[in-house]
Amino acid sequence: MPASPLVDAAPRIDALVDALAGSHPEIEVRRPGAETAAYALDAGTRREIVGAGPAVAFPADAQQVQRVVRAAAAAGVAVVPRGAGSGLSGGARADAAQLVLSTERLTRVIEVSPGDEVAVVEPGVVNADLNAVLAPHGLFYAPDPASYAISSIGGNIATNAGGLRCAKYGVTRESVLALDVVLADGSLVSVGHRSIKGVTGYDLVSLLVGSEGTLGIVVAATVRVRPLPVARRTVTAFFPSTAEGAEALGAITRTRVRPSVVEFLDEPSLDSIDRHSGTSLRARGASLVLVELDGFGIDEQTAELSEALIAAGGAVRTESDADGAVLWELRRSGRGIDEGEWFLGGDVAVPKSRLPEVYAAFAGIARRHDVRIAAVAHAGDGNLHPSVTRTIPEGGDPAHPDPALHEALEDIARLALSLGGTVTGEHGIGSVKRELAALELSDRVIDAHRAVKDALDPQGLLNPGKAY
Known about the structure:
Elements: H1 5-23, E1 28-30, E2 55-58, H2 62-75, E3 79-82, E4 99-102, E5 109-113, E6 118-121, H3 127-134, E7 139-140, H4 153-159, H5 166-169, E8 176-182, E9 188-192, H6 204-208, E10 217-224, E11 226-227, E12 232-239, H7 242-253, E13 261-265, H8 267-277, E14 287-294, H9 298-311, E15 315-318, H10 321-333, E16 341-345, H11 355-369, E17 372-378, E18 383-391, H12 403-418, H13 434-440, H14 443-456
Parallel strand pairs: 2-4, 3-4
Antiparallel strand pairs: 1-2, 5-6, 6-10, 7-11, 8-9, 8-10, 12-14, 12-15, 13-14, 13-17, 16-18, 17-18
Helix pairs in contact: 1-2, 7-11, 11-12
């Protein structure tokens, strides 16, 4: 019987680790083993069971990243770039035949320039930590994923992360001006510019943002930062049903107010928060429109928004700063996953006017596949995060959900596409959504993706098996 690919790869991994230890002892490299098992998975694949983890390198600067990539290329070993491991699509999943290149030690905020409204950061800087550095300058970094307290800027760039404030400030791509990138041959290139405007050559920055580490490894990013708003305010509107709340979202668009955040939580999501956080949100209604306003004229914004939501049937309240902070934390982390349930999460997006149709379709999809569906939405830009669950029967394997859950998510993805949307709004394709990507991307478009990949990584060494 022929040896498995993992067995065949073991000598190459050992030789690579030995070569790095001999030529670059300043770079910490851990051999495959039980102590590296956590580096085989990310948050999206954490329920999988692994034995020995992959080899992991921990470069501390751009030059060390180059040395690791060159050594891996010479050894013919694939490299899986990894940030904080908070991704939800298996984009950092790695096996024992691969080398994980962790950016967790690349944590310098190299520069903050209030005059240019830019910051230069290494990829391992955590989103929240960057904002802590910016705050004394009266600035903030706008991209705001729910995992902002733990996710790194490099990981945000890899997936073109969005988050809550996309409604007003856009996704990560809108905040990235320039990148320093190590390519698959170990060369270091700079793309983009520090200026806000610039159209010289192809827009390689936009190409690299969202490429999930398949085209290069970001070692520094020049990002736009913005003045902290003079005021922020939280407004809530509870509705008697999910359908009524979803329909009311259009009333916000019809106002002259442009909130920084518009989130929508359906009835099952409120139930989940109450169950896992000990709250009583359901006592206030069966769905919630959660809005953050910011900037000048906050009283006028509040009045116009409140009038529109009341007219749409909402029970509207302007929250205190303390109560607002609690609600935002509940939105980010209040829901939980029951150990006795299979769980799969989605990340579709549709034109925001079509959100009511998506919520209306959930009941039929749930019945068809005998699953439960809940969804929170970044309603300001039409991005939904449906969760599909089913109780694990006696003898069921927690690490391998019933195919019905995957089928339900595929139905949701097909629905999103039929409404002019996409199968992933901000989490990326990674390794777990490639079949869904094939629903959206034509063969000719996939060929174009592969041509770009071949031009920058002809050996296919950077994060193989991810993104398309």
